[in-house]
Write a structure and sequence with these properties.
Elements (H helix, E strand, L loop, with lengths): L1 H47 L7 H10 L5 H11 L4 E6 L6 H17 L8 E2 L8 E7 L10 H15 L3 E3 L6 H6 L6 E4 L6 H12 L10 E5 L3 H11 L7 E4 L9 E2 L5 E2 L1 E7 L14 H4 L3 H20 E11 L8 H11 L3 E3 L12 E2 L6 E3 L2 E3 L32 E3 L1 H4 L4 E8 L5 H4 L6 H18 L5 E2 L3 H11 L7 H4 E3 L12 E4 L2 H7 L13 E4 L1 E6 L9 E3 L4 H4 L7 E4 L1 H11 L24 H7 L5 E7 L7 H5 L3 E8 L2 E6 L3 H17 L4
Parallel strand pairs: 5-6, 5-10, 6-7, 10-11, 24-25
Antiparallel strand pairs: 1-3, 1-4, 2-3, 7-21, 8-9, 11-17, 12-17, 13-16, 14-15, 16-17, 18-19, 19-20, 20-22, 22-23, 25-26, 26-27
């Protein structure tokens, strides 16, 4: 009996202990859950609450550097940094129908915004050429499509439509300055060394094409390079809207970009180079307010050496007589004037600063700094040789000012501040290479044999590892012969040498899916070799304009159709498969693609007819019967010779085929592109330039 009682007492005691443990676990779990909920609420509040627009270290650092003229000027700069950045954009000057886009903007979109009582009137940027850039009193980070304002919603629709087709680019105002200082010509070989996200590259392409005669392909090239493959893909997407055969996108570290040679071993250098280098970005506080919290004095110190390496290599790639524009979106002289001064010192008279004071005369700017300090998270440093004071490992000797810099015209550098013209902060300087660089500067950094071997192997395996198909010339002459015959291609297009592809196959009968057309300058870059005559190791992400695409259909002679984006380049050199139609006929074809409820010009058409129902004019039918089935180019009839260029700019790639109800015609352009063409066509019809 006693043993039984003691057993029950032990069992009861164990149960009570287990119950206490369970209650304690539940309490702890509840507390943990409560803490998690509190943390979640705090994170949510942190996301909802706007960042504090202040940083004492930032203000103290730049006040000590003396970046502004006086205390009042400094206060004005800080107040401007705390205001949201206005929305800015520019129109594409190289598009043939830029005037139609401008009329839409100035005739409909801007007047609607001017009627908004809560907004300042839209402002045309005075210093940007040809009234192509605009500043709107709306935060660039605002969600336009959620606005209750009809004017803002109209602006959103305009920006979306024009942006998708490459007629317009949203871009920060100060970011537009460096390409303008390059003064690009159609024959120039240009490289944007740190190109992503691509707005400046698009601007360079527009300049290359804008100075070229209508219907001609520029002889030059714009190489858009970025160290990140992901960012290189992003800039490809941004730049492909330009439909330029002069574009080549590459993936290299800027300071290690290959030095190219032609078949004879001569260096292939660039006439214009843009080095918008990685930087601390503290000039973008208005656009990126989270930087207020993140900024510290180490930002500029950490990047100075890389910036100097990129700028030095840019001068190696530059042709004598060529121009380099170096820029940052930073206020820090350690990223700006100290890099420029160290560069000039290394160059020993072979490079000079260009005086750009007369360029863009209406741009509000300040001269470059002649003196600066070196500071990091540990404080200010008087010299590189000082001892007994702690400093960051990234502090470099080239950061420090010295007396010989007094003789350098560093005031020719350009500083743009946010309070001068309601922009972000920016630094730009232009340099001209007047002679060959000193031998010690011309030499690339020495690498041991193992590292050299690893780099060569990495270049060889890049396409396979990154899953990027290599670029190669179209070797199948039968493809080129078929395209030339079907479309009546003139010699000026030179398809024998200008067509490249990315698809390769050893299977018999398999032809490339897409054919890219390249300018003469782009071809020279892609076929360049290394110094030893071997492959230069150029890592190409994208190139040229997609001009032809495979579409095999029974009864169609040519296996390749022309793409809408390739028309700008190809149309001036084609003699066949072009159909002149009435503007009203083309309007119906494009409107149906946009799902507009429109009727054809005729009530019905039987299945035995050889003409699509949209084509009713006798002359149009006559032209249509002269072409073969497959890809055709529809061009509206111009009013006279003076409006012929405008009419050809409205050309539409279409497919002429046979369906259940007879002949049919469908638009090959994307819906977004077709919508923009429809608007521009109606604009021309209203002015009577096409009939």
């Amino acid at each position: 009996l006693d043993d039984g009682h003691s057993g029950r007492r032990a069992s009861s005691s164990d149960e009570r202990a287990r119950a206490r443990i369970a209650r304690e676990r539940a309490r702890r779990a509840g507390a943990s859950s409560a803490r998690a909920m509190d943390d979640g609420h705090r994170e949510k509040r942190a996301k909802l609450e706007p960042p504090a627009l202040a940083n004492e270290r930032f203000e103290a650092y730049y006040a000590a550097q003396g970046v502004c003229e006086d205390a009042g000027d400094f206060r004005a700069m800080m107040e401007a940094f705390r205001r949201p950045l206005p929305l800015t954009f520019r129109l594409n000057a190289s598009t043939a129908l830029v005037e139609a886009v401008r009329r839409k903007l100035e005739g409909d979109v801007l007047p609607a915004l001017k009627r908004e009582a809560s907004m300042k009137p839209p402002k045309c940027v005075a210093w940007y050429p040809d009234r192509l850039s605009w500043q709107i009193d709306i935060s660039q980070s605002a969600s336009l499509k959620q606005s209750e304002s009809r004017g803002v919603l109209g602006l959103h629709a305009f920006l979306k439509s024009a942006g998708e087709t490459g007629a317009l680019t949203r871009q920060e105002l100060v970011s537009m300055i460096p390409p303008l200082f390059l003064e690009v010509k159609p024959k120039h070989r240009v490289i944007d060394m740190c190109a992503a996200p691509g707005s400046k590259t698009s601007q360079l392409l527009e300049m290359l094409h804008g100075a070229t005669n209508a219907g001609e392909t520029p002889r030059g090239v714009v190489v858009a390079n970025d160290a990140s493959l992901q960012r290189a893909n992003l800039l490809t997407h941004q730049c492909k809207r330009s439909n330029s055969p002069a574009l080549v996108v590459t993936n290299h570290q800027a300071q290690l970009f290959p030095i190219l040679h032609d078949a004879k071993g001569k260096k292939i250098r660039f006439d214009r180079i843009l080095a918008d280098v990685p930087c601390s970005g503290d000039g973008t506080l208005r656009k990126s307010p989270d930087l207020w919290k993140k900024w510290n004095a180490s930002s500029g110190v950490d990047l100075h050496t890389l910036q100097l390496e990129i700028a030095t290599h840019a001068l190696r790639l530059l042709e004598v007589g060529g121009r380099l524009v170096y820029s940052t979106c930073s206020l820090n002289p350690l990223e700006n004037e100290s890099v420029v001064a160290a560069l000039l010192k290394r160059a020993k008279g072979s490079v000079e600063l260009v005086d750009v004071s007369k360029s863009l005369p209406e741009l509000k700017r300040r001269p470059g700094m002649k003196r600066w300090k070196v500071g990091d998270i540990y404080g200010w440093h008087d010299s590189f040789e000082e001892t007994g004071k702690k400093r960051m490992k990234t502090v470099a000797k080239t950061m420090f000012w010295n007396r010989e810099y007094d003789a350098m015209p560093l005031e020719r550098c350009v500083r743009v501040f946010p309070h001068l013209d309601d922009t972000g902060g920016f630094f730009i300087t232009a340099l001209k290479k007047t002679a060959e660089l000193p031998p010690e500067m011309e030499q690339t950094p020495q690498m041991d044999a193992n590292k050299t071997y690893r780099m060569e192997r990495a270049n060889e395996q890049w396409n396979e590892k990154k899953r990027v198909a290599p670029v190669m010339k179209v070797e199948d002459r039968s493809i080129v012969k078929s395209i030339n015959k079907h479309y009546g291609v003139q010699d000026a297009l030179d398809l024998d040498d200008a067509l490249m592809t990315r698809q390769h196959s050893d299977l018999p009968g398999v032809t490339p899916k897409r054919l890219y057309y390249l300018s003469d300058g782009a071809r020279k870059v892609l076929t360049a070799r290394g110094k030893d005559g071997k492959n230069a190791g150029l890592q190409v992400v994208a190139c040229g304009v997609r001009a032809f695409e495979r579409q095999i259909v029974d009864g169609v002679e040519c296996a390749y159709r022309i793409t809408q984006e390739g028309l700008d380049t190809a149309l001036p050199c084609l003699k066949k498969q072009i159909v002149r139609v009435r503007a009203s006929e083309l309007e119906i074809i494009l409107a149906r693609q946009q799902d507009e409820n429109v009727g054809a010009n005729s009530s019905s058409r039987s299945s035995s007819d050889d003409v699509p129902e949209e084509i009713t004019n006798a002359k149009s039918i006559e032209h249509l019967k002269k072409v073969s089935d497959g890809c055709v180019i529809l061009v509206p009839k111009a009013r006279d010779d003076d409006t012929e260029t405008e009419a050809k700019a409205l050309a539409v790639a279409a497919w002429l085929g046979r369906g259940k109800k007879g002949k049919s015609i469908s638009v090959l352009a994307s819906k977004a592109s077709g919508g923009q063409l429809l608007y521009q066509l109606r604009d021309c019809m209203s002015r009577g330039t096409v009939v």
